[in-house]
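Field reference: sequence -> structure
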Amino acid sequence: MDSIYENSRFKLPPVPSDEKCSQPKGNSTEERKREVTSPKWTKVLLIVLGFFLGFALGGLCALWMIYDHKLADFESLNEQHITVSKKLAAQEINSTVLIRALEELEISYTRVREQLLLHVAQSCNLSVNGWIACRGKLYFFSSDKLNWTSSRDVCVSKAADLVTITSQSEQDFLVSKMNVTHWIGLNDLVTEGHWVWVNNRTLTDTGVQFWFTGGPREPDNWRVLDPSGENCAALGDIYGNFQSWFDASCKTVKKFICEKKY
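Structure field:
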C-alpha cells in the first residue's frame, strides 16, 4: 500500500501559508467598505442640511430687509402725518385769529354805522332858508293851509314838489317834525284805487306804504263830505294819528310838505 501511495502521481497542492484564515480576510474588506460609505452619506446630509440652513438664513435676511423697508415707510408716513397735523393745527389757529378779527371788524363797523346814523339824524335838523336838510334832500314844512292842488303849486314854485315817501326812515323823520296833518304827494285822481306819487311812481315802485289800519282801513274813499270821494293822501289825521296815511277830499285845506334834492 505504501508503494501505491508512493507511485501515485496525484499530489495535493501545498497550501500557502498566506492563504490561511482567508475567510476572515474577506469579512474585513466588507467592513472597510461600510466604513467608507457611511462618511459619504454623512457628508451628503451635512451638505443638504447646510443648503437648507443657508436658504433659511437667506429667507430670514430677505424678510428682515422687507420689514426694515416697511418700517422705514411707516416712519416716513408717521412723519408726514405729524407734519400735516402741525399744518392743520396752524391753520386752525389762523382761522380762529381770522374769526376774531372779523368779529372785531363787525363790532367796529357797527360802532361806525351808529355814529354815522347819529350824525345823519343830527344833520336832519340843519335848516337853510326854511328848508330842513336830511339824507340828500331838502324838506319844507308849510305854515299855511291849502287844498291839495294849491299845495302842490306852491311846492312847484319853489322848484320842488309834494313829498314822496320811499322808506321807513323818511316816514319817521317827517313824523318827528309835525304835530298836525300834512298833505303828501300821493293821489288816485286819474284812476280810483290806483295810487300814484307826483313823480309818477306807484306804491309798488317805492315798495312802502303806511295806510291807517287801526279802525276803518284806509283808503276808504269816503263820500259824505265830498261826493267825488277822497282822492288825495295826507300824513296823519285830525285825531293825531301821525304815523299813518289817510285818504281825504282834495278840497280840504291842510298844511303840506314840499321836497327837493340838494
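Note: The radius of gyration is 63 Å.
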